[in-house]
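for the record, two folds in this file. i put them one after another cuz i was lazy. first one right below, seq on top, structure tokens after. the second one comes after a little note so u can tell where it starts
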Amino acid sequence: MSELLPPNSTQLERIAAQVGVRATELPVIIRDLWNPETCPANLLPWLAWAWSVDEWSDAWSERQRRDTVKNALAVQRIKGTIGAVTRGLGALGLPVRVQEWFNQTPPGEPYTFRLLLDVDQSPLRQIDLVKILDVVATVKNLRSHLEGVLLAARSSAQVYSAAVAHSGNEIDITYVAPLLVINPTTLPLDGTITAGI
């Protein structure tokens, strides 16, 4: 590369050319940088910027960030539809459903919608709700308005039951101390001998 420089090039230009040569020899596979699954985690914000991700937070888990980048192109294609809202919220990993005004009973105000959150065994923090509202505001169409967020909490548990069956006989055993008989003849204390019966 430095051979292409003119003879009157400055010292700075020659050094910059040498640095440029070394930069092109870096062992980086470009296709891995453009893949949300193989991109290094520290470069994900730049990939998100390149793919026009609207909402981004470094506080998200790595899985949430990768899923957000992965869904970015599909969300951009259908932006402004109910599918975009559903897909954008699905990238956050939160169980959110969208209910439009004509699917409500009784029907709601025209061009409004509700969010139905099914919270199961894990708490919904305020920061999660803020993320949800930010995503909805970014990908929804301009004529539709969020009417409210309804939380439904479910709790599941497992019930265990057991039974024991037992059959057998009941036997009573009585222990009687044995009598010790040494001789059929006993000697009384007075010295007379009597025959034992």
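(here's the note) second protein begins now
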Amino acid sequence: MKYFKTEITSDHIVSDKPLHERLLFPYVQIAPQLKGEVLELGCGWGRGIAHFQSDGIRYTGVDKNKSLIDELQTNYPACRFQEVTLPDLSIFPNNSFDHIIAFQVIEHIEEDELFLEEIHRILKPGGKLHLSTINRRFSISRNPWHIREYDSIGLTVLLKMFFCTVDMKGIEGNELVWKYHFENRKAVKQMMRFDFFGLQYKLPAMLLRIPYELLNRLNRKKLIHSQQGKFRDISWRHFHLNENPDLGLDLLVICTKAHS
């Protein structure tokens, strides 16, 4: 499946590879922990589904994009897919799932408390939420597709409203990964030098999405050909978890629902 929006990040586009591998890493990390009924919220084009194909996992994926859902159902007939617009999870009864995955989703949700309340409702007692989101400390510019971004403290406070345990780590990279990040930051800063009036923070998000998409794609293509093409070598194996979430490009959290 090919999708060309930079916010989706395709594994078929060479210039998306560093970010695709960064987003793939948490799927690889949690796959050995999963069993029973597993629900993925905002499954997109199915970046991590191949890692969840085992006899002990019954996978359900939901997304608002019907064309994605239909294609995934064809490609993974043993799994179940449904069209859902988050945070509405009313189609699922209480205590339905052993594990719920929400990777790079919560930053897109206006009603984040309702989103977590619904996740808590449909998790079985003792069930786990696996959640990732960008670490606001390392945001490069305003992303017009995001409602809000979180730091470790704010996200922890939010999650503890609903879950008895919150285990948060940072997704960090090796030297090559950080080199890509800082080169990206430098390039974006160069582009933003013409934004004399800080319009990226003042204009409605809808007006910024097309220029953001065009400039982001242009920048990614430029970066992937820089450094003698070394950034093409970035893979999920170049990432690791840091016990200090503030040092991670992304935050990865496992939350547990109380038994009673």
